[in-house]
Amino acid sequence: MTPTGTVLVVGATGTTGSRTAAQILAAGHRVRAASRRGTPLPGAEAVRFDWYDPATHDAALTGTDRVYLVPPVGDPDPAAVMLPFLERARTLGVRRAVLLSSSAVPEGGPAVGRVHQALPSLFDEWAVLRPSWFMQNFTGAHLHATTIRETGAFATATGDGRVAYVDADDIAAVAARALTDDDAPNRDLVLTGPEALTHDDIATILTEVTGRPVTHHRLTVAEIRHRLTEQAGVPPEFAALLADMDHAIAIGAESRTTDTVHRLTGRPPRDFRTAAERETAPAPPDE
User: Fold this and answer.
1) Which domain of life does this protein belong to (predicted)?
2) pTM of whole model > 0.90?
3) Closest to 165 measured CA to CA, from 87, 37, 279, 39
4) What are the DSSP calls for 130-195, one per residue?
5) Which one, of 70, 62, 46, lies nearest residue 179 by Cα?
6) How far apart are CA 128 and CA 245, in angstroms?
7) Strand partners, 197
C-alpha cells in the first residue's frame, strides 16, 4: 500500500469505525476520527461530526481524500442526510468512499440501499461493504448482548434460519484495504464468517464459552417488532425493518458464506467461537 492522504472515518468510536481507524493508523496512514463528541483517538485527528448538523460537515471533510461511511444509526431513510454530504465531499476533493451497508440490504433496497445505488455515480473510486450480522452483537452494546448479560437469554424471529456472523475486526480489515489499497474495489463486497449458524447454535456456543447458560427464545415477527419498539425504544419504522430482516433469515436469506475476507486480507475470517472467547475473556489484572 502506498501512502494515502487523510482518511476520514465517520463513526470512529463505533464498532467498525474504531477498528477501521486503528488498522489504518497501524498501516501508517493519516486518520481524521469523526464522532458526535469529537472523542480523541490515539494517533488520529479528532473532529466533531453529526450527520444531522451540516455545520460540522465541512470541517470534517476539508483536507481528506477518502472517507469511511457509517450511516446514522436507526434512521430508516439515511439517504436524506447522506447524499447531500457525499455531494459536498466530492466538491471538497474526496475521491474514494467506502460505505458500510448490510448483506441484507441490496443496491437500491431500503434504508442504506439508496446510498449504495448512488455511490458509483458520485465517486470514481468506491466500495460498499455488505457484512452479515456482527458477532459483537452478542458481546457489545447490542440488545442481544444486553439481554444475555441481564437475563441469560436473547430473542429472535429467525426460527431455524442460519446466519454466517462476521467478526467486526474482519470487517475493519476489509475496510482498511478498500480505503488504502492503490486500486479501489469499485463493487459491493458481501462479508461473512466461515460458517452459517442457527441462533440455537449461537446460544450453545455462548453457553460453552462463558460457562453460563444462554437461551435463544423463538418469537414471531410481530412479537419481535413489539419487543423492539416497547422494550428497546426503537422507532416503529426501523423496528419493522429489523423484524422483517429476522423473517428473511428464517426463510434462508443469510444462509451463505463468502471468501471475501480471505481474498481481501489474505487470511480466513474468524469463527464465532474464537471471537466469543476473545471478547468474553476476563481482562488481565493491572500491573
Assistant:
1) Bacteria
2) yes
3) 279
4) EE--BGGGGTSSSHHHHHHHHHSEEEES-TT--B--B-HHHHHHHHHHHHHSSS---SEEEE--SS
5) 70
6) 19
7) 163
3-state DSSP helix/strand/coil % of the chain, to nearest 5: 45, 15, 40
Read off the amino acid at residue 171. I
Residue 99 exposed, middle or buried by CB count within 10 Å (0-12, 13-18, 19+) = buried
Over the stretch 20-77, which tens digit does the pLDDT of each residue have? 999 999 999 999 999 999 888 899 999 999 999 999 999 999 999 999 999 998 898 9
Angle between helix 168-180 and helix 15-26 axes, rounded to 10 deg: 50
Question: In the numeric block, which cell numbers belong to residue 241?
Answer: 425493518
Count Cβ atoms below 10 Å from residue 141 Cβ, excluding itself.
10
Does residue 111 contact residue 76 with C-beta atoms inside 8 Å? yes
Q: Which CATH number fits domain 6-196+254-278: 3.30.1300.10, 3.40.1640.10, 3.40.50.720, 3.40.50.450?
A: 3.40.50.720
The grid coordinates listed for 285 are: 489484572
CB atoms within 10 A of CB 147: 18
**Pseudo-torsion of CA 108, 110, 116, 121, nearest 10°?**
50
- pLDDT by position in tens, the chain (length 287): 345 689 999 999 999 999 999 999 999 999 999 999 988 889 999 999 999 999 999 999 999 999 999 999 889 899 999 999 999 999 999 999 999 999 999 999 989 999 999 999 999 999 999 999 999 999 988 899 999 999 999 999 999 999 999 999 999 999 999 999 999 999 999 999 999 999 999 999 999 999 999 999 999 999 999 999 998 888 898 899 899 999 999 999 999 999 999 999 999 999 999 999 998 865 444 43
